[in-house]
Amino acid sequence: MGDAVDPVTLAVMSGVLDSSIREMTITMRRAAMSPVLAIGNDFSNSIFDGQARMVLQGQDQPVHLGAMIFACKEVARYFGSSLAAGDVIYHNDPRTGGSHLQDMTLYKPVFVAGELAFWTVNRSHMDETGGPVAGGYNPMAEEIWAEGLRISPVKIYEAGRPRQDVIDLLSTNFRTRRQFRGDLGAQLAACTLAERRLVQLVDRYGLTTVRSCLDALLHRAEDLMREEILGMPDGSYQGRAIVEDDGHGSGELEIAATVRIIGDRMDIALSAPPQVHSYINSYAANSLGAVYLGVITYVGPDKPHNEGLYRPLTVDLGPTGTLINAREPAACSMSTSTPYGHVAEAVRTALSSALAERSGAGWAKICIDCFTGTDPRDEQPYAYLSHLTGWGGGGAFWGQDGEPVVGPIEVAGAAMTGDVELLEYMLPLHIHRYELRTDSACPGRWRGGPGTVVEVSPIDHETTVSFLGDGMKYPPPGVRGAERRDNRERVFRKWIVEPDGSAELVRLHSVHPLGPRQRLREFTAGGGGAGNPFDRPADLVFADWCADLVSLESCRTDYGVVIDAADGRVDDIQTAAHREPTGGTAP
Q1: What is the distance between the alpha carbons of residues 81 and 78, in angstroms, rounded to a whole number?
Q2: What residues contact 435, with CB distance under 8 A and at least 6 apart?
Q3: CA distance linking residue 445 with residue 458, whole number of Å
Q4: What is the C-alpha to C-alpha distance for residues 305 and 218, in angstroms, rounded to an integer?
Q5: CA–CA distances in Å: residue 377 to residues 22, 380, 382, 427
Q6: For residue 470, is it within any domain?
Q7: 184 inside domain
């Protein structure tokens, strides 16, 4: 760090940045109006310095945070010297660092004594984009124009005064105007509060000292990442992931990653098929964020999460015009999950070969629904991206079971399903059933996190449900022996259930009406396992059976443990004859 910054001042500076981010999060939770933000926490906060370098990210959505690194730079470049105190900028275009159109980002440049010192930034998943399908997810979209309103960087406040014409232009294009204005106000409040804290920081220490500390924080993150990479064996490692058929005839699509570790540097090259006429294409900033996520799941969690972490990485997404390096006018509304999660999975699979002791299994993909309609209580339109019906289990790590109902890897547990009672209060929906699903977790020495069983119906109206995502064919992959298990039934399933009890299996990438006398029944997938399931201690298998996480049949066939349900007696049949090969020496 050099002699310019003493450790105490640096620690204070880091603490102020962290507390500012936390206050932004609290503000969003209290002020946002839409369920996806107020309950689901589907937003992310970051602080950038005057050079548009991310100096701290919130403990938020990885799918937002990686792309924001590039988005803030694009916004700063776009406006150049035409920025002033009191300006507020809005943006969602994937060409310039956006992810998909639903993720709308508010940027507030922070000036101190006439100098640009910081940017406070919030990216939030808005429940409406103004496209032909409410909620922004259009399974039939073949180009981005069919997904909603694209917002190139635009000032919505100029020198502290709102540009009401621009704000009205935005809200006029969205069905849920009242919620949009409320959520926009929450974004503005969060960024303004952080601005106030950062100005106080500069007033106390001076801009020169603050800038020196920010440089030191970035350099420290870089040094720590280089130390991590030095501890990894040099070599070239391969990983892959399969995107299931998108319903447009594209078939299965493979994403491959090659990770080369050379000293304290990591080079990552990806390959993917050409972009498709569907909504699963990913623009560059979004895909780069997925690569970053794949890497940081294999480093120590105590690292400072800022832009310096990624300096030792070089990333090659391949030529433009592919599934992961799309060019205009590729549709992309599903890109933040498909193929984002698959890019991260391909990188993680490659790194598991290099770092067996940190092996991480696959997380359940996002296989989600978007409910839209008119609330009969107030005749106002609503849109709800349902984390409740789309969240499966997390993958196991070597030495730790996966977490239940934690969502896909791209949100990493930061997006919530929310309390059922609160959801029913805010939305005209009734949740009949919400429980952990027996045998949904993929077996392993450390099993995956369980998924759920959910049943939902609309109240006194007909809603429209868009079925989106991936994960109905392939379960999340296991690692180090768990991948050999038969997990074909541990995937997502969705049915529309009629009043007479008959049920129709729903396919993904489709839109269906759902009436008040019907129910939507869903099985969400569990996460992948780590290690040979026959090595799992019998007492842990028994505890899972007592908690109804595994059936008697699964105990016997997957784990080699026979339980007498009458008296709870356990017969551990894990003998050498029953064990299956682990595919190598376990770490």
Answers
A1: 9
A2: 452, 453
A3: 41
A4: 9
A5: 35, 8, 11, 9
A6: yes
A7: yes
List for the chain the helix, strand, coil content (%; round to 5): 30, 25, 45
pLDDT by residue (tens digit) across 466-497? 999 999 999 999 998 887 666 667 899 999 99
Report how far residue 221's alpha carbon sits from residue 19's, in angstroms, rounded to the nearest whole number.
19
> Is position 501 within any domain?
yes
The reply to whether omega before 329 is within 30° of 0 (cis) is yes
Distances (CA, A) of 205 to 209, 211, 212, 215: 6, 10, 11, 15
Residue where one domain finishes, among candidates 223, 257, 281? 223
Q: How many domains does the chain have?
A: 2
3-state secondary structure of 201: helix
- For residue 110, the enclosing domain spans 7-223
In 351-507, the DSSP E strands lie at 367-375, 380-386, 429-436, 452-458, 463-469, 493-497, 503-505
> 3-class DSSP state for residue 547?
coil
Residue 160 lies in a domain: yes
- Hey, how many other C-beta atoms are within 10 angstroms of the C-beta on 466? 24
Do 405 and 551 belong together in one domain? yes
- pTM exceeds 0.90, yes or no: yes
> What pLDDT shows up at residue 572?
64
Domain final position from 223, 246, 267? 223
